[in-house]
């Protein structure tokens, strides 16, 4: 169960957690067009801080724009609403879930007359794939489900309906005894996890798939910046399935998953079967950044 907090922001008002309800005929619930974000607030030495708030709100607005939904709030209003939601709930560390959805009105595919509603919920959420996953890495399988083609779903947008594909892949992975799925794009190259971007390390250099069929992950961008700041070489280029198998190291990145090492792909051990040295170094650097311990990246933190 989600760990309930006190209030949820709904269209400009704070509502008690248990009263944050929508009508069963809400349009998004039936047809899947909506936009959402996943953001984390970390407890730092200077109090709670939201990681890359502006970038997440910008992506939310861009997702809605791609989906053709007019959000009745500005970037600044949404950033403030997120800060206010954390304050009113009095949490130090939390996950933040803003959602833009089409509400109750008409039924049918034409959504022109449905209201665009916005909600923001926050709750404590620990390691998405578990503490053990962060420390020891996870086992993943290449999914039998293909990631969206860019002209089937809009992959730059974090659209609610995109996650039907993610759920098919995730549940297939879980039911066959793995922790997470890796999806290939329609051309057969490695795309991303069900809710994470992927990196490998090979011959001392980092490689991550280009921004075609994948979500432009904010953690992905952050890791690229942090790695380059550390003097590492990062390539954004096509990654084939068999290159994954012979990677020296591999890891997932995402707001929920943070930086989770991958120790096995399709029953093939990656590297030593333990999080590799570059993965461990980047994971440590990432946690230092989000916890406000690295002065080079303070501009990524919004202190509450
Ligand atoms: N890919 C997908 C499909 C995702 O859902 C996520 C999580 N938002 C990511 C990648 C990682 O994105 P971010 O680092 O911005 O959370």
| Ligand set | 4'-deoxy-4'-aminopyridoxal-5'-phosphate
Total of DSSP H or I helical runs spanning 4+ residues: 8
DSSP strand content: 25-35%
What is the third-level CATH name, the topology of the largest domain? D-amino Acid Aminotransferase, Chain A, domain 2
Give the name of the CATH superfamily of the largest domain: D-amino Acid Aminotransferase, subunit A, domain 2
Amino- and carboxy-terminal Cα gap: 26 Å
Briefly, what CATH class of the largest domain?
Alpha Beta
Overall spatial form: globular
How large is the radius of gyration?
A: 19 Å
Quick check: average pLDDT? Answer: 98
Examine the secondary-structure arrangement and name the CATH architecture of the largest domain: Alpha-Beta Barrel
Largest sheet: 9 strands, mixed
Say what oligomer this is: single chain
Family: Belongs to the class-IV pyridoxal-phosphate-dependent aminotransferase family.
EC number: 2.6.1.42
Protein name: Branched-chain-amino-acid aminotransferase
Keywords: Amino-acid biosynthesis, Aminotransferase, Branched-chain amino acid biosynthesis, Pyridoxal phosphate, Transferase
């Amino acid at each position: 169960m989600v760990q309930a907090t006190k209030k949820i922001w709904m269209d400009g008002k704070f509502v008690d957690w248990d009263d944050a309800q929508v009508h069963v005929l809400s349009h998004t619930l039936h047809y899947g067009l909506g936009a959402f974000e996943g953001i984390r607030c970390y407890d730092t030495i200077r109090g709670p801080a939201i990681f890359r708030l502006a970038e997440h709100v910008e992506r939310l607005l861009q997702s809605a724009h791609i989906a053709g939904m007019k959000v009745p709030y500005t970037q600044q209003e949404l950033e403030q609403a997120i800060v206010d939601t954390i304050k009113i709930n009095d949490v130090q560390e939390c996950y933040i879930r803003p959602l833009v959805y089409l509400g109750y009105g008409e039924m049918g595919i034409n959504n022109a007359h449905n209201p665009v509603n916005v909600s923001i919920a926050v709750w404590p959420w620990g390691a998405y794939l578990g503490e053990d996953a962060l420390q020891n890495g996870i086992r993943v399988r290449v999914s039998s489900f293909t990631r969206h083609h860019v002209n089937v779903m809009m992959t730059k947008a974090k659209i609610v309906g995109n996650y039907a594909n993610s759920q098919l892949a995730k549940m297939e992975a879980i039911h066959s005894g793995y922790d997470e799925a890796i999806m290939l794009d329609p051309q057969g190259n490695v795309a991303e996890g069900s809710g994470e971007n992927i990196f490998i390390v090979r011959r001392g250099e980092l490689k991550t798939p280009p921004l075609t069929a994948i979500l432009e992950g904010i953690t992905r961008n952050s890791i690229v910046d942090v790695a380059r700041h550390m003097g590492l070489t990062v390539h954004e280029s096509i990654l084939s399935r068999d290159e994954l198998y012979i990677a020296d190291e591999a890891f997932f990145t995402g707001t929920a998953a943070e930086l989770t090492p991958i120790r096995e792909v399709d029953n093939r051990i990656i590297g030593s079967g333990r999080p590799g040295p570059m993965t461990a170094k980047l994971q440590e650097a990432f946690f230092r950044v989000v916890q406000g311990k690295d002065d080079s990246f303070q501009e990524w933190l919004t202190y509450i």
